[in-house]
Structure formats: C-alpha cells, structure tokens
Amino acid sequence: MSSTPLPVGSPLWLQIATTLSQDILAHQLTGRLPNEQALAARFTVNRHTIRQAVQHLKDRGLVRIERGRGTFVQEDMIAYRLGRNSRFSHSLTVQHLVGSVAIQSHQAETASDAVCALLQLPAGSSVLRVESLDLANGEVVSVCTQYFPLPRFTDFRTVYRNSSSTSDAFRQMGIARFSRVLSRVSARMPRLEVAQALQMGRQQPVLYVESVYADESGQPIEYGITRFPGDRVQIEVTPDTL
Length: 242
Prior knowledge:
The protein is of the alpha+beta class. The protein is built from 8 helices and 10 strands. It has helices at about 10-25, 35-45, 45-60, 90-95, 115-120, 155-160, 165-170, 190-200; strands at about 65, 70-75, 80, 100-110, 125-135, 140-150, 180-190, 205-215, 220-230, 235. Helix 1 (about 10-25) packs across helix 3 and helix 2 (about 35-45) crosses helix 3. InterPro entries: Bact_HTH_transcr_reg, Chorismate_lyase_/UTRA_dom_sf, CP_lyase_PhnF, Tscrpt_reg_HTH_GntR, UTRA, WH-like_DNA-bd_sf, WH_DNA-bd_sf. One of its GO terms (molecular function) is DNA binding.
C-alpha cells in the first residue's frame, strides 16, 4: 500500500486527522475505517499516532468507536419526532429517506398484565406479537416489538407483510386515523440480538421508546417498543407534540 503525503506545519496526528476528515466529508471514506495497522501503513506512522488522530475525529463527531468492532464514519443523525399523529415512518419521509419494514416473526400469545393494561384489555387476553426491523435507505435503524389486540387484528399479519409501514397496514385495515396516546423514552443496554441487528456494541445503550396508539374512538390498537442506536437517532419533542 502506498503512503499518503501529509500537509506540514502541525503535529502528525492532526495532519492525519485533517486528511481523514477531508476523505469523510468528500464521502471517499464511508462505513468502517481501516484498522490501525492499515492506517499506520498508509501514513507511515506508529499506531499511537493513529489513535490520537482517530480520537480527534471522534471528538469532532465524525466517527464513532464501537468496542470490539472498530471505528465507523458517523452518519447524519436521523430525527424522530414524537408527534401525536406521526410515526417513525413519517419522520423518515420528511428527511427524504426511504423507509421499509422487515418482519422477522409474528405469533398470537397471551399478553402479560402490563401489555393488557396498556391496551386496556382484560387480564389474560390474546394479542398478536410482531418482531420487525425498521430500515432507512436499506439500513437497519431500529428493532421493534409490537402488540396488537386479538381478535380485531387476526388478519393483520398478512396485511402487514405486504405494507411499507404500520401506518400503511392500518389504512388497509380500515383505520384511517389514529393517534399516539402514550410515549416513554429511556436508555437501556441492548440484548445480544438487538446489538447485532443494529451493528453496535453491547456496551452501548439504546434509546428504548414505548408508544401506545389509539383509533378515533380512543380504543388502543397498538403497544410498541422500538430500540434505536443512540448515536444515530435523536428524539425530537416540540411544544405541539406534548
């Protein structure tokens, strides 16, 4: 591998950071950065100098370091607005991102007391549980668990598989209007399968967003849990959404 000439007049690590930042901003460097050995060979320096350069890029918000996985270029943050009448798919559309859903599994089950309470169902009621992934421009940005009351949503699993979003599936089920009646946001450590799906380390917390949606009559129709990588998605709350 041929070495890359560096600008002069500043510490080596800063020169390397400047060169790498230019590559990132020009979209010539995307995804995962080469490892320390490869970068040290490229710039003909030792690994300690590379670590200083990478730390500087991290401090500038240009890269993120995932323990055990490497260093990645930091993509633009996706804004998720917690609106009364909006969902994550709406936020993607506003940001000109192509959203889609990849359903991983679905099954009917007896709901826990907590789920029954949120959906205003009698104890021991059955619900449809759906596990899915939200994608933006083809990349996984969230891991979702959704609960829908049965028997009202018996056919929902089939409709959902042929829809681009939950909102689209609701419309096909004859639910043209719905609203968010509850939102809770917390930070939690991800389970292994969640971390793997989001391509992040298990030591990094996820944004854990719980939402309940109701139809026009006020009857809850969905309780959902969405897990977002905190360094790629930000939650927006404005006065009109409170």
